[in-house]
């Protein structure tokens, strides 16, 4: 008899959600679309960053002329170049030129093995410190160009993406906050943290601070998880599938929209500003429009607040009388749990003890850190052999 009564009690809340969802489809679609903007913003964060750090052709913008460093642009059109000489072949080192007795330029042997090379001195090649990106002048301006992510700084392309993903990895520890302080509180807090740091990225010039902000942006990931949970708790069971899929439809829209933004807007800071503006329109409505989960409120004993929210939802959906059929004091969400029922935490702890979980987490983060930040993470000799073979191929 107790099992039958429990089943009937569970139907009370689900039946209430079903009637609300049927009476006011506009309400559930508005709420779902607003919450799904978080998923679209997550796509913007990842894919626009990939596009603005993409590599483009470049060459050294300096030369060494008669032992003095001068810009390549100062002599590119005012002097006769050596035969078979092209500045495009000098990427990470400066070409060393000298003026011959007839005033023509010659390439020293230490620079490159071109046909016009003259053995003059054995001076090692000097590293380049400025670059020209092609086409010149560039038709777009990216982070790759602004922060010169070339040659010895090429690792920065992966590093800045890694900082974002590392923040997402560490943000998983904040997931349980949704059960402690509420779904809406976590969703709004982490969503606003993400977009605040993203807006700051637009104005920050220092690359180190850029990476710190990207790392903090990664901590907004719990908003994506909580948004899915909040949708399932605000929509009836019969509609959860289609509304849950809308989250990932907007993610795909953000994915394709990132390419469209990058195609039509050529400055990476403006691209970021447009992405923030699109997401910000929806984010501005989170506090006044999106309700807290009534299911969570009832399980936590906030019956009056849950009743107030459900009244507003029913009023918006045009089904005020439905709320009279629901018992706020006695239902499956407010009754104490059965003590004889095995707890999920006990089963989880049996197979995954705390020390094992901590050990695997530490090992995973160590492997992730080493493989990402080290140019030769596992075998130094293997890296050296690869460098040697690549040098042989180039020569």
UniProtKB/TrEMBL annotation:
Spans through the membrane: 186-205, 211-234, 246-266, 272-290
Protein known as: MFS domain-containing protein
Subcellular location: Membrane
Keywords (A to Z) from UniProt: Membrane, Transmembrane, Transmembrane helix
Main localization (coarse): membrane
One example GO MF annotation: transmembrane transporter activity
Keyword Transmembrane attributed: yes
InterPro entries: MFS_sugar_transport-like, MFS_trans_sf
Source organism: Macrostomum lignano
């Amino acid at each position: 008899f107790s099992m039958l009564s429990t089943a009937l009690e569970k139907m009370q809340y689900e039946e209430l959600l079903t009637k609300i969802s049927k009476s006011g489809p506009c309400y559930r679609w508005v709420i779902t679309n607003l919450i799904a903007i978080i998923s679209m913003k997550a796509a913007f964060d990842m894919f626009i960053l990939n596009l603005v750090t993409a590599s483009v052709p470049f060459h050294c913008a300096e030369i060494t002329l008669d032992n003095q460093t001068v810009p390549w642009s100062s002599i590119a059109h005012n002097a006769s170049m050596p035969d078979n000489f092209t500045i495009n072949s000098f990427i990470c080192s400066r070409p060393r030129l000298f003026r011959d007795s007839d005033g023509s330029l010659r390439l020293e042997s230490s620079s490159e093995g071109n046909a016009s090379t003259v053995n003059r001195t054995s001076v090692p090649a000097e590293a380049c410190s400025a670059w020209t990106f092609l086409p010149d002048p560039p038709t777009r301006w990216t982070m790759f160009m602004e922060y010169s992510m070339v040659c010895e700084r090429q690792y920065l392309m992966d590093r800045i993406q890694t900082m974002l993903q590392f923040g997402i990895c560490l943000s998983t520890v904040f997931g349980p906050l949704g059960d402690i302080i509420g779904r809406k509180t976590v969703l709004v807090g982490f969503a606003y943290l993400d977009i605040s740091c993203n807006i700051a990225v637009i104005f920050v010039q220092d690359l180190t601070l850029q990476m710190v902000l990207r790392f903090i942006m990664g901590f907004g990931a719990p908003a994506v998880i909580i948004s899915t949970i909040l949708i399932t708790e605000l929509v009836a069971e019969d509609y959860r599938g289609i509304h849950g899929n809308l989250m990932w439809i907007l993610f795909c829209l953000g994915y394709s929209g990132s390419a469209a933004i990058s195609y039509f807007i050529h400055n990476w800071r403006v691209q970021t500003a447009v992405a923030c503006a699109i997401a910000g329109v929806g984010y501005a409505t989170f506090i006044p429009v999106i309700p807290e989960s009534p299911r969570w409120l009832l399980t936590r004993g906030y019956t009056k607040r849950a009743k107030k929210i459900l009244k507003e939802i029913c009023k918006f959906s045009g089904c005020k009388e439905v709320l009279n059929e629901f018992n706020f004091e006695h239902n499956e969400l407010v009754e104490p749990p059965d003590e004889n029922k095995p707890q999920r935490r006990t089963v989880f702890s049996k197979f995954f003890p705390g020390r094992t979980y901590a050990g695997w987490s530490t090992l995973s983060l160590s492997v992730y850190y080493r493989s990402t930040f080290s140019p030769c993470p596992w075998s130094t000799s293997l890296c050296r052999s690869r460098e040697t073979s690549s040098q042989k191929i180039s020569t």
